[in-house]
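Recall that a protein's primary structure is simply its ordered list of amino acids. Everything else, from secondary elements to tertiary packing, is in principle encoded there. The following example makes that idea concrete.
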Amino acid sequence: MSRLPLLPLILLLTGCGIEADESMSLRDAGHLILGSGHGGDGSAWGLADCAACHPLTLIHRQAPRIRGIVQDKGYDSCAGCHGGNGVQQPRRCVLCHNPTDLPAHPPGDGVNGHDFVTPGREPLRDDQCLACHVASDMDGRFDINRDLTRFADASGLATPYASLSDFCLRCHNRDHQQSGFDITTTAFDDPLVAIEDAWRYSDKHGEVAGGGRTYAGLRNDYVYPSRVACTDCHAMHGTQNAGLIIDRSDRGASRLTADFRQQAWPVTTDEGDFSQLCVLCHAMETVLEQGGVDTGNGLRGVHRLGEDCRPCHRHGEAAQAGM
């Protein structure tokens, strides 16, 4: 049998006498969703029986990180990564991504999450995963332009994402939201729709409006002014806090050093007091007001505690005193 060209599923072609290249990695294999050329000449496209060519004992020998769970879940797991192969098989994401089998991929605990579910967080459905992850390459390395669904930009074009925040802004805007994910709000400055206007100002703390102060002192690689990723403060898959605010440092704050971030400093927000969130990245060089007081999570460095931050630090406006 002649050697086949690179196929979306080349790592799985260990049945039918086809052997995968030993040096090939999942990332090299590229897009995992099967297309009409499956089988080299399309002969395997439209077949529902994966076992006909892919013995369960042989598949994923070059992918040890997922081989075990595939062996455990069996052929029910195939469509989750590789699509329906032209026969409309349901893609079963939560078969593997659940609190028992893969609880940390992603961490999904917490009463709030961006799962498009009703309040109270009913069990996640497969179709909710596929809203944002229609064709992930499942290689353990997050690539915004491979692992995220390609939504149209303001011009209606499926352009590549420049950043993770760019992905968020394809939905969170005033006038080019995605069909089926419409955001309804009556407030002009609601961050859910205003953030596209204000994002370029984000983190120019106290300078944009002209009347605020910049408190020198940021941890690690945060600098003034900088554009902070949405996911530095907002957890997509699960958090105890309202507004999807992260509840631990290891769920956001990407520019912190790994050692500091992985200490999982807790974050609780209550009545608009975001001091435990802000102090993850802020540490005053010259202590002012309450800058030397523990915010309650073991960290110090922000000027006010126990009160609503939002009258002065507000999301969603182009002219603002911070955030």
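The longest helix spans residues 64-73. The chain is about 15% helix and 0% strand.
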